[in-house]
Design goal:
With 364 residues, the protein is of the alpha+beta class. It has eleven helices and 15 strands. The two termini are 35 Å apart.
Length: 364
């Protein structure tokens, strides 16, 4: 039996959304309500004490602080690793001053990571503030699905009332002393101050587009379909979700079969990594039957070689979109491409919603 399975089953409960996040969620911005994600209280007693939690689960508004710093990170992200030093110093500054201790708190959320990865990360980089694993990217999507490190400053309100986003910082931030001063000012400001004139001045987070133009992309999809027989009909359904899907009726010998292909374009989890682009094919039993790369990279933004693509193909082909299996980096990741591998698996876990949408058009 896979030795990681108990950990995987446990960590799946770590971040449970209280809503359905849109696949095209905009990047969170000042003036927004911070999502009231239902989270499982950390098992480490020191973390429980720091957050002031006695219940098994909590939502952010329950954290007794005037200001909450939420860092979205990934343990394999080089800039997230680099940022630990300055954020450790920031944590120490907050805790050393009686005027900020307890009033300003820090919480990390590790997008696409499992609990044991987070534990190793905290030990390696000596991180004292709590970090929660987000293996299924629930929190990552809720905050806008942008690259890590991403830091969100939340002016807390009262228990049960969502805090207000008072600021957002994208990318590495090593100026911890300046940030400390900014946090003390935010913690003292009125909640209403962060509502005034903020939303309209922030540009909407653009939806990531496929790496190829329409005609070359259609050619790649058609080529993928022809591996299963002759194309008799080919179409691109218009879906309300905006997902880019193609369908074809394939003739092979004397049989005909309808197949589907979805083009996936995912923002990289890491701010210095390339975005993820690929095509997967599936049949009317919801079984994945094909996998074609468009842009897949590993550490150093080096493209995957043919052997790595074939390894991933063997991992995903044969799986059913209606019965997704959680990503296990120890088993499923391509070497030096853990974040890319995690995004591939996460994309397949969202296949069931796609099938439901195809059914509404009598295609499935």
């Amino acid at each position: 039996m896979n030795r990681h399975i108990p950990q995987i089953l446990l960590v799946l409960l770590l971040l449970l959304p209280t809503y359905t996040a849109s696949a095209e969620q905009s990047l969170i911005r000042p003036g927004d309500d911070f999502p009231e994600l239902q989270m499982v209280t950390p098992s480490v007693p020191a973390d429980q004490k720091y957050l002031g939690l006695t219940t098994k689960t909590f939502i952010p508004s329950q954290l007794g602080a005037d200001l909450l710093l939420v860092e979205l990170l990934n343990v394999h992200c080089p800039h997230c690793q680099m940022q630990t030093s300055s954020y450790n110093e920031l944590f120490n500054l907050i805790e050393a001053n009686p005027e900020t201790r307890g009033r300003i708190k820090m919480l990390g959320i590790a997008a696409g990571n499992l609990d044991h990865e987070v534990k190793t990360f905290r030990q390696t980089y000596r991180v004292d503030f709590p970090i929660l694993a987000d293996p299924n990217f629930y929190a990552w999507r809720a905050l806008g699905g942008d690259a890590t490190p991403l830091t969100v400053y939340v002016r807390q309100n009262k228990p049960g009332v969502a805090g207000i986003v008072s600021g957002v910082h994208q990318g590495l931030n090593t100026h911890y002393q300046k940030l400390y001063q900014q946090l003390t000012v935010m913690a003292a400001q009125d909640h209403a101050d962060f509502r005034r004139g903020t939303k309209g001045n922030i540009e909407k987070h653009p939806q990531l587009q496929p790496i190829l133009a329409d005609l070359p992309l259609e050619y790649r999809v058609r080529t993928a379909f022809t591996r299963f027989g002759m194309i008799e009909s080919f179409a691109q359904p218009s879906l309300q979700s905006g997902r880019r899907v193609y369908t074809a009726v394939i003739r092979r010998d004397k049989t005909r079969e309808r197949l589907f292909a979805e083009v996936i374009s995912r923002t990289s989890v890491c701010d210095i990594c390339h975005d993820v682009h690929f095509i997967y094919l599936f049949d009317r039993t919801a079984r994945v039957i094909g996998f074609e790369p468009l842009q897949l990279t590993k550490y150093g933004n080096i493209n995957w070689n043919d052997g790595e693509v074939e390894t991933m193909r063997k991992k995903v082909v044969g799986r059913f979109l209606t019965a997704p299996r959680p990503f296990d980096p120890g088993v499923d990741a391509i070497s030096s491409a853990t974040m890319t591998s995690a995004l591939i698996f996460d994309s397949l876990t969202r296949g069931e919603d796609l099938i439901s949408e195809l059914r509404t058009q009598n295609l499935f």
